[in-house]
Design a protein that fits this description.
This protein has 11 helices and 15 strands. It is an alpha/beta fold and 369 residues long. The strands form 3 sheets. It has a 6-stranded antiparallel beta sheet, with helices on one face. Strands 8-12-13-3-14-15 form a 6-stranded mixed beta sheet, with helices on both faces. The chain is globular and about 70 Å long. It comes from Ectopseudomonas oleovorans.
Length: 369
């Protein structure tokens, strides 16, 4: 998938944006606070209907404006074009349009425009809560397995029902048995999808990481959220007194985790910031490779401040891996010289200068120039 046109209006400090990006590398440079990250945020809004910088809409929409809008034209792998549009209201409402029709959910956007984000908060994938790693894992499964989303929705419904009567402290044995059964069935299928995905991800991750850095003893493993030797229904029955006390379900795929370790230690406790960034980049690029294999299309990568934490050699290695994906990339930096020469001569690179919210294309090089 390639974003061939992009427009944004009334979003943060950006002036009205109208871009025709390169299908390969788009380099955005400018001083801190100029609007580079806001442009990445606008593209993220187009692909997921939400910001990666804030859970609140107020900072995203320009001051004294009631809403912001983003529009994009996406070139699909078969050559067709798909038009996406999002309007977010300050009050929280939003409208999603795909080819002129109202869309039901943001999942439809993600299907058309799969995004991979690498930004300064990316360290949270290693050192943050298990929820962040589950989201990473489920993003990959969603793009490989069409049955995953409705199954995940079944799981959420069963969990809500079970947690509701746990909080009330009043148990209907028949309802308990029914929802425990539904929870166990959905959980087993989701666990199967996740395990299969991890088995495909591991060799890709190992290969990508080896091209970036040598880290002896680093392992990737999956914890499913309950004892691997026991059926979930048995675990739910045994944990019922404790679940009632806490008011929520403790065991299940909602507690799953992707564990990244060096020996017996969490990788985040051992690695430097630069090493952590390379591990996160390897995970994201490995996911992109798997998406390419399954969907014949490419992720769009949003990389905020790529040079930070990395020396010249590692920056060059990362750029080479991104080139090999043959995907569309949007990268921000302060000084364009740190990255403009990092690409092969045949790679199409468009350079944009961002200043006080204005975005101006200044240079294009490569095979399509």
């Amino acid at each position: 998938m390639t974003l061939i046109r992009f427009n944004a209006d009334r979003l943060r400090n950006l002036q009205a944006v109208a871009l025709q990006p390169s299908p390969r590398v788009n380099l955005l440079h400018g001083a801190n606070g100029s609007g580079k990250t806001s442009l990445l945020e606008a593209i993220h809004l187009l692909g997921l209907a939400r910001s990666f910088r804030s859970t609140k809409l107020a900072p995203v929409i320009q001051h004294e404006q009631a809403s912001c809008t983003v529009f994009g034209q996406v070139r699909l792998p078969g050559g067709q074009d798909c038009n996406l549009g999002i309007q977010r209201e300050r009050g929280g409402d939003y409208q999603i349009r795909i080819n002129g029709e109202n869309a039901r959910s943001a999942a439809q956007l993600a299907e058309v425009l799969p995004l991979q984000l690498i930004n300064p908060d990316g360290f949270r994938l290693l050192e943050g809560s298990p929820k962040i790693r589950r989201q990473f894992l489920d993003w990959g499964v969603f793009h490989e397995e069409q049955r995953f989303l409705p199954l995940w929705q079944r799981l959420q419904k069963a969990l809500r029902q079970r947690n509701h009567w746990l909080r009330r402290g009043k148990i209907d044995p028949a309802a308990q048995a029914a929802w425990d059964q539904e929870l166990a069935l959905a959980s087993a299928e989701i666990d199967g999808f996740r395990q299969a995905y991890i088995q495909r991800l591991k060799p890709e991750f190992t290969a990508v990481l080896a091209e970036l850095i040598q880290l002896d003893g680093l392992t990737l493993s999956y914890y499913r959220g309950w004892d691997r030797e026991r059926d979930l229904r048995e675990v739910l029955a045994d944990s019922l007194p404790r679940d009632l006390q806490l008011g929520h379900t403790q065991a299940g795929p909602q507690r799953a985790d992707l564990r990244i370790r060096i020996g017996n230690h969490n990788a985040a406790d051992i690695l430097s910031r630069g090493q952590q960034k390379l591990v996160v980049c390897a995970l994201r690029i490995a996911q992109g490779r798997l998406v390419n294999q399954v969907k014949r299309g490419q992720c769009v990568y949003l990389i905020d401040d790529l040079p930070s934490e990395l020396d010249e050699g590692h920056r060059l290695a990362l750029c080479r891996l991104l080139e090999a994906l043959e995907c569309q990339v949007f990268i921000t930096c302060v000084e364009r010289e740190t990255l403009q020469a990092a690409w092969r001569p045949e790679t199409e690179v468009s350079v944009f200068h961002v200043e006080h919210g204005h975005i101006k294309q200044t240079h294009t090089s490569g095979s399509q120039a």
